[in-house]
Amino acid sequence: MDSRFYIIGIKHCGKSSVGNLLAKELNINFYDLDDIIENSVNMDVRSFYKTYGKEAFQKAETRAIKYLEGVKHGFICATGGGICDNIESFEILKKLKNSIYINTPFDTVYSRIIKNGVPAFLKSNDPKNEFLELYKSRNYKYKSMALLEVSGDNLTPQEITSKIVEQLRS
Ligand SMILES: Nc1ncnc2c1ncn2[C@@H]1O[C@H](COP(=O)(O)OP(=O)(O)OP(=O)(O)O)[C@@H](O)[C@H]1O
Ligand SMILES: O=C(O)C1=C[C@@H](O)[C@@H](O)[C@H](O)C1
Ligand SMILES: [Mg+2]
């Protein structure tokens, strides 16, 4: 089994929670793409996105993906929710065919997100509808780049992790 997997899915679907558990289960390293970006730009991603905009953020994101291509050992990497809208990163991950999509219902993720305030990438005065449009358009992009898809509906991170391991081993 090639143990280099990217966890994809909309913001707060559970990528980091599941990614950490999956890495432990497979005994490999865990990376968070947003953390790699933060280290490279010396700023938290939210502030970087707000200050420099989408294009600069996506360039930094692709640099982080390319950095991981050079890593020789196995790993699990939780990506940012916007990776599917970054054409260059999307093409790289699509070719690698090792992305795992956590598909969590809209209402569940929206209520998790809004607890911490409106994220930087939602700009309108109707963030719920703006996020719904984003959710719908991203859903099919994640599906098109995924090696496998698991539902995150009403399951704990450990249950989702077990389902992924089961599918990877089948
Ligand atoms: N399966 C789950 N059941 C209940 N709560 C969850 C589940 N997965 C994640 N959460 C909660 O949702 C929030 C976001 O989780 P997490 O950071 O794992 O998501 P993420 O997809 O990595 O988010 P981001 O896109 O912002 O990096 C956290 O508060 C976490 O505890
Ligand atoms: O969903 C998104 O567009 C994003 C999610 C975050 O994790 C960051 O990667 C960034 O703020 C973009
Ligand atoms: Mg995360």
- Rg is 15 Å
Shape: globular
List segments where confidence is low: pLDDT < 50 over at least 5 consecutive residues: none
Number of helices: 7
**Helix fraction?**
55-70%
Biggest sheet, open or closed, and with what strands and sense?
5 strands, parallel
The CATH H-level homologous superfamily: P-loop containing nucleotide triphosphate hydrolases
Binding site for Mg(2+): 16
Subunit structure: Monomer.
Enzyme class: transferase
Binding site for ATP: 12-17
Short description:
GO terms for molecular function: ATP binding; magnesium ion binding; shikimate kinase activity. The chain is built from seven helices and five strands.
Account of the 3D structure:
- By secondary structure, this protein is of the alpha/beta class.
- It has a single domain (4-169), classed as P-loop containing nucleotide triphosphate hydrolases (Rossmann fold).
- It has seven helices and five strands, in the order βαβααβαβααβα.
- It has helices at residues 15-26, 33-41, 45-69, 87-96, 106-114, 127-145, 157-169; strands at residues 4-8, 29-32, 75-78, 99-103, 148-151.
- Strands 2-3-1-4-5 form a five-stranded parallel β-sheet, with helices on both faces.
- α1 crosses α7 and α2 crosses α3.
- The chain is globular, with a radius of gyration of 15 Å.
- The mean pLDDT is 95.
- Bound molecules: adenosine-5'-triphosphate, (3R,4S,5R)-3,4,5-trihydroxycyclohex-1-ENE-1-carboxylic acid and magnesium ion.
- The site of magnesium ion (MG) has 4 residues, from α1.
